[in-house]
């Protein structure tokens, strides 16, 4: 199956489950339900939850037991986008081709919608831990992996340094810290959490962690490249916003050509980490994803 078709197949699964899981209407706070759903269903690749399901399937042959954690990861990712778009952060008007959450619901409800998605993600994972005795240890370890990646030693930590670095002449180590934590950490955790739920050995987890680190960093560098040369009609969001916000990106620091070469190098690192899984049919998806990172236009 072509990568695009495979991504769409799993995307449909995730969106169907999200629709069942997210609160809807009928209560006094239903406006925040609508705001949550607005951003969740505004589009998106669903890359993080797909990685969770695929990693679980790679190890165990089945993805279904990882579904609650895949949904939680998409909620966490979407909350971060809602907050990123706020005037106090990146101040963006469009996300995924639609008006950003605060442009539709106001800044107050947008903040609360982001908070609600983050909290609901944790509620979803805790419910899974409570209700599934057979996978309790795996679920708890996956929960810890995701929580750390989303917190002050992961995504939030990266976002803090990103905000504090605007307009400053930062060095290579600071830029790597931002990329490693703001974007790469949650992508890495998506893969590792799926592998843990699937019952992976320590060696398998270490190899998939290497893979996740490489594609996570490559994904962010490709984002920097697309912010420079991307097509707004394909991306569905403003381009050039990093430069307008005085943010130092990989492209700004190293130039476009070196940035493209770095994504290729990271793609090869990721492929090498997969050699342990050559005997598994599902590994082809992860190989093809390496190429997608280098070539994607959205």
Automatic annotation (TrEMBL):
Highest taxon, organism lineage: Bacteria
GO molecular-function terms, A-Z: (2E,6E)-farnesyl diphosphate synthase activity; metal ion binding
Any one GO cellular component localisation term in the record: cytoplasm
EC number(s) reported in the record: 2.5.1.10
Keywords from the named record: Isoprene biosynthesis, Magnesium, Metal-binding, Transferase
UniProt KW tRNA processing keyword: no
A biological-process GO annotation: terpenoid biosynthetic process
Signal peptide: none
Reactions the enzyme catalyzes: isopentenyl diphosphate + (2E)-geranyl diphosphate = (2E,6E)-farnesyl diphosphate + diphosphate
Family to which the UniProt record says this protein belongs: Belongs to the FPP/GGPP synthase family.
Record's protein name: Farnesyl diphosphate synthase
Upper taxonomic lineage: Bacteria, Bacillati, Bacillota, Tissierellia, Tissierellales
């Amino acid at each position: 199956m072509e990568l695009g078709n495979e991504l769409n197949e799993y995307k449909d699964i995730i969106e169907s489950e999200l629709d069942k899981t997210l609160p809807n209407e009928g209560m006094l706070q239903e406006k925040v339900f609508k705001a949550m759903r607005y951003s969740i269903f505004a589009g998106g690749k669903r890359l993080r939850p797909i990685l969770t399901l695929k990693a679980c399937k790679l190890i165990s042959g089945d993805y279904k037991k990882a579904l609650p954690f895949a949904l939680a990861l998409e909620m966490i990712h979407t909350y971060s986008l809602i907050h990123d778009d706020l005037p106090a952060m990146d101040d963006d008007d469009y996300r995924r081709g639609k008006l950003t959450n605060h442009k539709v619901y106001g800044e107050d409800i947008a903040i609360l919608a982001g908070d609600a998605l983050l909290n609901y993600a944790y509620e979803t994972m805790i419910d899974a831990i409570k209700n599934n005795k057979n996978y309790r240890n795996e679920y708890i370890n996956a929960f810890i992996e995701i929580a750390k990646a989303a917190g002050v030693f992961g995504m939030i930590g990266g976002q803090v340094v990103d905000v504090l670095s605007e307009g400053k002449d930062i060095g290579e180590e600071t830029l790597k810290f931002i990329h490693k934590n703001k974007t790469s950490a949650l992508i890495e955790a998506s893969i590792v959490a799926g592998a843990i739920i699937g019952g992976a050995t320590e060696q398998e987890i270490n190899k998939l962690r290497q893979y996740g680190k490489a594609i996570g960093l490559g994904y962010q560098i490709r984002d920097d490249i697309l912010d420079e040369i991307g097509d707004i009609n394909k991306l569905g969001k403003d381009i050039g916003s990093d430069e307008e916000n005085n943010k130092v990106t990989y492209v700004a620091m190293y130039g476009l050509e070196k940035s493209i070469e770095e994504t290729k190098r990271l793609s090869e690192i990721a492929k090498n980490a997969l050699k342990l899984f050559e005997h598994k049919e599902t590994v082809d998806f992860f190989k093809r994803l390496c190429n997608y990172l280098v070539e994607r236009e959205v």
